[in-house]
Design brief:
Layout: E1 2-5, H1 7-13, E2 17-19, H2 29-36, H3 41-46, E3 54-57, E4 60-62, E5 73-77
Parallel strand pairs: 1-5
Antiparallel strand pairs: 1-2, 3-4, 3-5
Length: 83
């Protein structure tokens, strides 16, 4: 799985992208976040406001309860504003 981080999520995690393998029981973005926050304090801090973080699966917005797979690209980013 390719995981991409944007904006302040990227700044806190300390990287813009990483590739990991997930177990079959990590099958939603919510469970992926639960897994990531166990890695270290940076992930825990980055996802401390998980309700505000948006998720995309293969470049399409999804909910945190959508099913994901190991061959997906998952992106995490804060709400986007424009003007």
């Amino acid at each position: 799985m390719i995981i991409k981080y944007f904006s302040w999520v990227k700044d806190i995690v300390g990287k813009s992208e990483e590739t990991i393998s997930i177990s079959p029981d990590i099958d939603t973005p919510e469970k992926l976040i639960d897994f990531l926050i166990t890695k270290n304090e940076q992930y825990k801090k980055a996802f401390s406001k998980r309700a505000t973080i948006k998720v995309a699966q293969n470049k399409i917005y999804i909910s945190k309860s959508t099913k994901i797979k190991n061959d997906d690209e998952i992106a995490f980013f804060p709400p986007v504003t424009g003007g």
